[in-house]
Specification:
Length: 115
């Protein structure tokens, strides 16, 4: 950051740390979901980390109504994404939303975009 101007540093530091979260599992569809208007934290609890990458962490989670069913929850830190990464993520969500009954592809159950 030493070679950046103070304006550039300020813009980077104030970029919102928003997480985009999607839930995948082989289980049943959790209800209520994001369309209920409830926040992610009101509906899900996160536990151990299952994996991580440059922009995201996958954690085990449970829905408040079905605490015995585990879900893989991908938490993406949007402040680390470029514009192209953001578009790719939206494409991923769009494609997975359409592939509901494919036996060998993870199923997207829900998607939260929160600040």
């Amino acid at each position: 950051l030493a070679h950046q101007t103070s304006t550039q540093r300020h813009r980077i530091q104030t970029k919102p740390a928003v997480h985009t979260i999607y839930i995948t599992t082989m289980g049943s569809t959790p209800r209520p979901d994001s369309s209920s208007g409830l926040s992610f934290d009101e509906l899900y609890s996160l536990s151990e980390t299952l994996g991580s990458g440059a922009f995201s962490v996958v954690k085990r989670g449970t829905h408040t109504r079905t605490p015995t069913t585990s879900y893989a929850i991908k938490c993406v830190t949007r402040s680390k994404l470029t514009r192209e990464d953001t578009l790719a993520l939206k494409d991923e969500v769009s494609i997975l939303s359409q592939l509901r009954n494919c036996k060998h592809i993870i199923r997207l159950y829900d998607f939260f975009e929160e600040s």
